[in-house]
Protein 1
Amino acid sequence: MDSIEPEQTPFAAVSAQTSRWSRQYQAYLDKSTPYTTYRWTSTAALLILFLLRIVIAQGWYIVCYSLGIYLLNLFLAFLQPKFDPSLTHDEGLEDGDAASGLPVRHDEEFRPFIRRLPEFKFWYLMYQCTGPYW
């Protein structure tokens, strides 16, 4: 005996479809994580296509300039450490003690360089701002 399911509202159907697409998109992102060279090569190609489009159209220079400033901001955030040991207000943020800093003796713990913006997030934001708009 088939039970009659209540009809799904249009909002619920759109929400379910959007949820399905976002899960698929996240799965593709997860699969692309180990392929760093291919990700950056495709992003560089998209950026070159975008700049070529700007040159051919002979316009939209302000948009290109603002995109360049944004990409520079992302790049600088990628190069900066998350916690700057030279600043006094950042001391002790990593593990909670006030005397944290660079190791001076051999028996102190080594703390690796932690980026303010991780590589994958840097790539993703760069791809997001150049990919869909070329």
Protein 2
Amino acid sequence: MAHSYFVPLTSTVPKTDQASISPEDFVAISVEGEGLEAGQRVLELTSPLAMAGIHLMGIEYLISAAPRSIFFFTTYFSDYILVPLKSRASVINALEHRGFCFSASSHAYVNVSASHGRNGSASSSQSQILNSPSTPPPASIPELQARTFSLLSQREICPEVHRNLKLLHLAGRSNQADLNELQIGITRCLVHPPPIFSLTITGSEDPSLLIASESLSLFGPNHHSILLGARDDYLIPITLNLDPLPLEATGIVCGVSGRLVHTDGTTDPVEMRYLSTARGAAVIVDEADLERAIELLTKGEGGLGLTELG
């Protein structure tokens, strides 16, 4: 599909827009986190890979085709990592070393040893899964957080808070009549792009959408019947431009999500989702958790500067 529909379009885009498609083949790995909040699932999934030194950053490395690069996104139903085909075995080994196993019934990896997955230590076998990066993998989640925030500060990467951009996480219904209506709504979104619009379609789940609440009208007056999900559970995006980071940087997703989820016990974890984008990443938090998320990202050791965009 990429070669049929998207490659021909890249020649029509001005060079200043830097449109490109990676020549690598990628595979999607689904991971279940039953019983865990979305933020904890992000940490459960990304920590094994970060502790093994596997690159998990934004999709910008998919575009630039960096070695062993993968990216992560949370859908309405599941969590996914997109992995270069040549790195699939390494990523699976890292997950299995941290207590994940493949469930044939759900077609996804499940953490059957949660306590082992959260112990915050990395075994020597994990660090051998890939060729050693220029900096050895961290020994604990707190060390990973410190490294991540130090790197973001050095590169002057400041989170941008889109306070007035209220998002909804929804899912399309699976019957054919509703799918037809859904397709019309998606087409409208492509013609009149919302401020943020993310669509995930898989072979085993109904479509998942992340969309600005103000753009629901694009799905017509019957959007309540064709889209599942609460209309008043608003999410606020905090975006990071990861372009300045070096290609060898690892553990960014885990480092950022760990600061929000793996707290010291003096504050509640932040309910969050994560979405890799074309040039960076978006940490998406519940509206009620926004102020606490800002405080965790900006205060204390290694706190980052922050830009308010409304």
